[in-house]
Amino acid sequence: MKILFTGGSSFTGYWFLRELAAAGHEVTALFRKPASGYDDSPRRQRVAMASELVRPVHGCSFGDDAFLALVAQGGWDLLCHHAADVTNYKSPDFDAIGAVRNNTLNLPQVLRALADAGCPRILLTGSVFEGGEGAGSQGLPDFSPYGLSKALTAQAFRFYCDRAGLRLGKFVIPNPFGPYEEPRFTGYLMKNWLAGKEASCSQPSYVRDNIHVSLLAKAYADFAGKLPATPGFSRLNPSGYAEGQGAFTLRTAQEMRPRLNLPCAVTLAKQVEFPEPRVRINTDIVDAGALGWDEARAWDEMADYYLKAHAEASAPAR
């Protein structure tokens, strides 16, 4: 397929591009800047690597004039809208309405242009932290203003895709982890273990759904490749390790000890506060074997990535 992809500089975006290209699709990926224009090292690295796999287009964002001109060139089989406004997404003051406005800029016009150009499919990335997604506790509320922005974005896409007679696929992401991510929980664990320190899990009782990004990306490419061209709606909620955060921390330590040849010590705190829903997980079991994914190899790749990063950070300056 000939695919137009937004959000390629993100952690998951890079991995999705990698698997779409590996599946033989012709992908054009939009980036706000060339690799050298990004401040943080992981994003620079992802954009540079992705640009070797796909056709990069810089200075173009969903819904703007340059994007509409690109759509009008025609020949597209699928639009993958993976980009989303994530500015200060963890903040309780995150501008959910402003984010929806950015995520859906000129949406009716974009969809009409795609339909006129003969593109029958849209694939939107969702989040398990949207209200009503996945399975869990407390009535599946939106986790945050960011989760609300993703839910409202999805509702707008579903409404306007239906009106335009397009197929909408929704791919719902849980908690991905692996190489090339920004420093998050697994990055914190690896950094401490490689420094010979004990790591802790402060929220071991939350039940979440952590998934290897390499498996998530293979599921994404498979879902994209199988989206029908007929009008309608499809959804996939791929699940990984659906378990307590404490159990996931212990799992990661167990997998890393022989790979790092380190004790990978862990302390699990006693969690007494629960400001977020206690349980939120995805619901679709992924057939890893059918996708050609190997779990041991994924853990190996994660260990190798962090070992290399640690060695580079520890090397004396020249």
From TrEMBL:
SUPFAM superfamilies referenced in this protein's UniProt entry, alphabetically: NAD(P)-binding Rossmann-fold domains
Keywords: Plasmid
InterPro entries: Epimerase_deHydtase, NAD(P)-bd_dom_sf
Pfam family, one: Epimerase
Domain NAD-dependent epimerase/dehydratase: 3-220
UniProt KW NAD keyword: no
Coiled coil segments of this chain: none
UniProt name for this protein: NAD dependent epimerase/dehydratase family protein
